[in-house]
Amino acid sequence: MGRRLLICLALLFATGPAAALAQQRDSRPGVAVFPLTNGGSFGESKEDLEALTVGLQQMLLTELAQNSGLRIVERSTLRDLMIEQDMDATARVDAETAAHLGKIVGARYVVTGVFIDLNGDFRMDGRVIDVETTEILKTAQVRDDRSKLYSMLVKLAAGITDGLKLPSLPKPVQSTRLERKIPDRAITLYSRAQNYEDYGRKNEAIQLYRQIAQDFPAMTEAKERLEQLTKG
Question: Is there a domain that residue 99 lies in?
Answer without folding.
Answer: yes
